[in-house]
């Protein structure tokens, strides 16, 4: 390979020293940090895939206890789905406002994001509480153990996301739109959108396919 | 990404656009498509018009379509050259997710079919034991 060719595909930086990182060196923090966080989010999805696989394997193992058709309420799930989807959308609007440095709208949209996330979480906790009251706690059957693990793990992520969201609102308020604050906000939005993607899989596999006649 | 800035070799996932209008439109289109697909999913699951055994497969297809909508319109994953790293990482993640899920379901279904003792066998076993 000629040196000219190597420079074209970015193996050298045009001079004599080859950094192996292209002729401009490594990417800036504003690229590397969200990319690393993207890798975390993807590995989180792999974690959820193992929980989905467990659920799919044990969905029929009800041990004579309550089954998914008896337990799940599609109306509640529809409300949860809409709340989380709107939350994800409003989070996007907050990102648009944050890029333009608009404090008021960023805080307003982030607050709405949090309220919708809280509505989602409240409905989920209500569902868990009523299932346990109906005699369907996690220890009742393998189906219920895997159900509470899968949906509860998603709920735990949403809870962590809400805490993160509150922290971000406080940091933006106190420190303004500095580059590292915006970087954290971008990571948060990636996390929040990813939670909605996982919820799409949960409401389809657990709630809709689980309650087919 | 509409801009072709040679200095911008990579963009992070979910990076905001420079143009406010196109970005807002992107989120609105994403929300509309996601609501539509969610609505179709709930309708497909509750109607009796469709052929029963195909409903579950249809629901999975709708879910995958909706995940695609979220990736493109909310996380701004594109096919552009500045997104190559994001797409490659995503492709690897999707590969592992499918291997884990399909592999587990496949193996466990066979295990269940081949090794699950019927009630008669259980009785026989306890009698001889």
CATH class of chain A: Mainly Alpha
In quaternary terms, these chains amount to heterodimer
User: Globular, elongated, flat, extended or rod-shaped: what is the shape of chain B?
Assistant: flat
Secondary structure class of chain B reads mainly alpha
Task: Classify the beta-strand content of chain B into a percent band.
Answer: under 5%
What is the element string of chain B, with H for helices and E for strands?
HHHH
E-strand count of chain A? 0
- The proportion of strand residues of chain A reads under 5%
Sheet of most strands of chain A: none
Q: How much is the average pLDDT of chain B?
A: 84
- Write down the overall geometry of chain A: elongated
Query: What is the CATH superfamily label of chain A?
Result: Cytochrome c oxidase, subunit III, four-helix bundle
Query: What is the radius of gyration of chain B?
Result: 23 Å
Q: How many domain units of chain A? A: 1
Let me know the number of strands of chain B: 0
Distance between the termini of chain B: 71 Å
CATH architecture of chain A: Up-down Bundle
* Radius of gyration of CA atoms of chain A, rounded to a whole number: 22 Å
Helix segment tally of chain B: 4
Helix-strand sequence of chain A: HHHHHHH
3D structure, described in words:
The complex is a heterodimer of chains A (about 210) and B (about 130). With about 210 residues, chain A is mostly helical. Chain A has one domain: Four Helix Bundle (Hemerythrin (Met), subunit A), CATH 1.20.120.80. The longest helix of chain A is centred in the last third of the chain and has 34 residues. Chain A is elongated and about 60 Å long. Chain B is mainly alpha-helical and about 130 residues long. Chain B has a domain of about 60 residues. Chain B is built from four helices and no strands. In chain B, helix 1 packs antiparallel against helix 2. Chain B is flat and about 65 Å long.
